[in-house]
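Bumping my old thread because nobody answered last time. Still need a sequence for this structure:
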């Protein structure tokens, strides 16, 4: 008769199994996703392997009652008993992970072929679903980045082509004697050349903003810096009828790159002057936030999530007339994140508010 020393009886395993099921059931009441976890399923499989081994042992014992098998056969039977539990456990565990891994492997293959439309489906296993959700979010970001990349060439070429076409047309007409060289035409050519220069400067500024910053951080009195910038735009603000208000204490210090902070605030002020149609801009600071608000016409609610995207413009025709590429707020976002901060925007009713979490 074949025996397996040290093993519990089948009845004992049955009682332990029932107790374990009760414990898991009670835990499942308080932990809703308990049975979705791969670790719990693996533990259950390990626990079940014990009774499986006992059952196989008893089946072999029943088959060979009263018989005297050869020693080598006896040894093979013992090896079979010892290995049967782990082998069955391994096969069942493989079934749990094989399908999700195949799905993930297929998604990676699609991604390598620049297919950004693939999406991983939920498996019902917590650990896999958590990773798959992050993977799907990454795919969505890649889809968006790919769209922006494809739009880059068309947007940039359009913006550069408009002034170039106007300049070439004017110069050709003057060269052929169709137009005389006048001060008005020279002024027009100069304006188009300045527009080209501004577009190139914006592209250069965006490229530099994305590069690692080498600027040293320093303690900056924020109220003093804001006053200096407002004084620089004093003429433009008065022409637009905009009053600047500061809610910043004299002793408030921010640790940042002076150049980056100046460019951030300068962009806010310029946007308010050019586009907001506001009568007041307000800069407010708390211990954790810097807020720039205006009481102008604001932007449509559906445009708020896209304001920091490259080449995004709320009013494309107006931005093109003003020579903008829609890079200003993208540059701001890059500069803000270089400082280790976070920026978001919200409707102020009236107007708009940019919030920087320091």
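Sorry it took so long. Here it is:
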């Amino acid at each position: 008769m074949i025996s397996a020393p040290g093993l519990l009886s089948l009845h004992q395993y049955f009682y332990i199994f029932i107790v374990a099921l009760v414990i898991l059931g009670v835990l499942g009441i308080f932990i809703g996703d308990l049975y979705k976890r791969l670790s719990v399923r693996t533990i259950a499989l390990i626990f079940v392997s014990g009774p499986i081994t006992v059952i196989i042992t008893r089946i072999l014992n029943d088959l060979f009652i009263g018989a005297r098998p050869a020693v080598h056969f006896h040894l093979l039977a013992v090896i079979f008993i010892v290995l049967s539990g782990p082998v069955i456990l391994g096969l069942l565990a493989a079934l749990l992970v094989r399908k999700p891994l195949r799905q993930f492997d297929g998604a990676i293959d699609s991604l390598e072929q620049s297919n950004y439309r693939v999406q991983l489906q939920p498996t019902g296993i917590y650990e896999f679903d958590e990773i798959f959700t992050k993977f799907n979010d990454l795919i969505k970001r890649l889809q968006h980045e790919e769209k922006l990349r494809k739009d880059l060439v068309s947007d940039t070429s359009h913006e550069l082509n408009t002034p170039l076409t106007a300049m070439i047309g004017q110069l050709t007409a003057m060269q052929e004697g169709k137009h005389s060289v006048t001060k008005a035409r020279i002024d027009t050519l100069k304006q188009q050349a300045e527009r080209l220069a501004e577009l190139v400067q914006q592209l250069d500024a965006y490229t530099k903003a994305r590069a690692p910053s080498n600027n040293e951080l320093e303690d900056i009195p924020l109220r003093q810096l804001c006053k200096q910038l407002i004084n620089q735009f004093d003429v433009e603000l008065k022409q637009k009828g905009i009053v600047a208000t500061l809610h910043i204490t004299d002793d408030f210090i921010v640790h940042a790159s002076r150049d980056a902070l100046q460019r951030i605030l300068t962009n806010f002020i310029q946007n308010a002057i050019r586009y907001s149609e506001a009568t007041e801009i307000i800069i407010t600071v708390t211990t954790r936030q810097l807020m720039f608000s205006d009481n102008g016409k604001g932007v449509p609610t559906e445009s708020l999530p896209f304001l920091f995207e490259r080449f995004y413009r709320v009013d494309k025709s107006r931005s093109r007339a003003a020579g903008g590429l829609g890079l200003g707020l993208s540059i701001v976002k890059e500069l803000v994140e270089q400082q280790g901060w976070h920026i978001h925007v919200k409707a102020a009713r009236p107007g708009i508010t940019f919030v920087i979490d320091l």
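The chain has ten helices and seven strands. Let me know if any region looks off to you.
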